[in-house]
Amino acid sequence: MNAPSGMPRKLRITTTSLSGCFGCHMSLLDIDERLLELAGLVEFDRSPITDIKHCSQHCDVALIEGGVCNAENVHVLRELRANSKILVALGACAVNGGLPAQRNHLDVGKCLSQAYRTPDGSAAAIPNDPELPLLLDKVYPINEIVRVDYFLPGCPPSGDTIWKFLTDLLTGRTPRIEHPLLKFD
Amino acid sequence: MSDMNSATSANTFSIDGQRIAFESGQTILQAALAAGVYIPHLCHHPELKPHGSCKLCTVVVNGRNGSACTQKATPGIEVENNTPALNDRRRVLLQMLFVEGNHFCPGCEKSGNCQLQALAYDLEMLAPHFRHAFPARPVDASHPDVWLDLNRCVMCELCVRASRDLDGKNVFMLAGRGAESRVVINSPSGLLGDSTLTIDDRAAHVCPVGAILPKRVGYAVPIGERQFDAEPISHQVDYLAHRHIPIVPVATQTENS
């Protein structure tokens, strides 16, 4: 907050999970005691960790977990892109759609009626509340919606991978993820 | 060792400035692998005739592009291989292969044994870059012992070649043109289960990706202990040069050294 003069400003990080499983956020927590070190270097803005609902000011880094499967995901992703200097695709779903994208060769209407049909197989009661975001025709990797600065593949990327990436970024190095930290599975 | 001396002057060429000895008839890729020099490749297998379709092994020979797997080694040629420009192009080829099919590593039994994935790791391909095609391709589970998942097929024709040249069966063939290309099965119904393929066929085990997989193997060897987990593919030249198409699936072999 009120850093002593001469101390570099803390970087502001914002994170979100679009159509993700929060596994990548779990992996971020999996850096274990290094979280304390990270807390000395960064502040979290909008994030499931802080429960801030919208970006409160301009952020330095946005970590995006999950692909884009519905209209709300598009709005959230655009908000974070507009308010961040560096936007990172965190994990397989953000990079290539991942598991949710397995529906991409199916018709979204048929998916819904299959998922919500009544047990006897009769008429489908598909939820239609105006508060529910509409599904997109396909699940998109985030780089097909906004510009992405860095990609961090993995399902999830390991804590070590995330740590290597963040420390590279925080210390001004070009982030480099290679064997054995680079994994797609 | 006058023989040796004459051999080094007559039967050598250079890769990135390193002198490579070769035997008459060897391709650039064969000579390189025999000498312990890694050239990225996907559609090549040491037990099968070269095909030259994936173009990942493209090198620059005396200033001109050529596929290292099909071009014969000749005395004195100068080959560029491990250069940033070539590796950039190889990465783009990989990215196009990834977006053209449905390659979801977290859900694939081949992960860790997959040559496509290993190449992407080695060339530090962090994202597929291009717009995904998300094609609708079928999964054929009709065979009692073998899965066929065309979502993961890269159309390298290794199964076609193994079935034709090693098994003598012609179970697989590539049909269609351009974006419509696909592997088809030689059986009345077009299903793998009605073909003459058996689990003992080498074609059932040659697939470099997860398109043709033996059933009931799954994760017998866990993720993290697989072929390309311990060391990147570029450090496994000896394996690439001398591997055999296993009669038993790779993943069931327990010895790991």
Characterise this structure:
The complex is a heterodimer of chains A (185) and B (257). Chain A has helices spanning 23-29, 34-41, 71-82, 92-96, 108-116, 159-170, and strands at 11-17, 42-44, 59-65, 68-70, 84-90, 135-140, 150-152. Chain A is elongated, with a radius of gyration of 18 Å. The model of chain A has no long low-confidence stretch (mean pLDDT 92). Chain A is of the alpha/beta class and 185 residues long. Chain A has a domain at 11-102 and 136-170: Rossmann fold (3-Layer(aba) Sandwich). Chain B has 257 residues and is α+β, with helices and mostly antiparallel strands. Chain B folds into 2 domains: 2-81, Ubiquitin-like (UB roll); 86-219, Alpha-Beta Plaits (2-Layer Sandwich), CATH 3.30.70.20. In chain B, 22% of the residues lie in helices and 14% in strands. Chain B is built from 6 helices and 10 strands. Chain B has helices at residues 2-10, 28-34, 84-100, 115-122, 158-166, 237-242; strands at 12-15, 18-21, 58-61, 64-67, 78-80, 139-140, 146-149, 172-175, 182-185, 212-214. In chain B, the strands form 3 sheets. In chain B, strands 2-1-5-3-4 form a 5-stranded mixed β-sheet. A 3-stranded antiparallel β-sheet of chain B has the order 6-7-10, with no helix packed on it. The longest helix of chain B is centred in the middle third of the chain and has 17 residues, at 84-100. Chain B is globular and about 55 Å long. Chain B starts with a helix and ends in a 15-residue tail after the last helix. Residues 1-7 and 249-257 of chain B have low confidence and may be disordered. At the A-B interface, helix 4 and strand 7 of A face helix 4 of B.
Short description:
The complex is a heterodimer of chains A (185) and B (257). Chain A is an alpha/beta fold.
Number of strands of chain A: 7
Q: Classify the secondary structure makeup of chain B into a structural class.
A: alpha+beta
The stretches of 5 or more residues of chain B where confidence is low (pLDDT under 50) are: 1-7, 249-257
Say what the CATH topology of the domain at 11-102 and 136-170 in chain A is: Rossmann fold
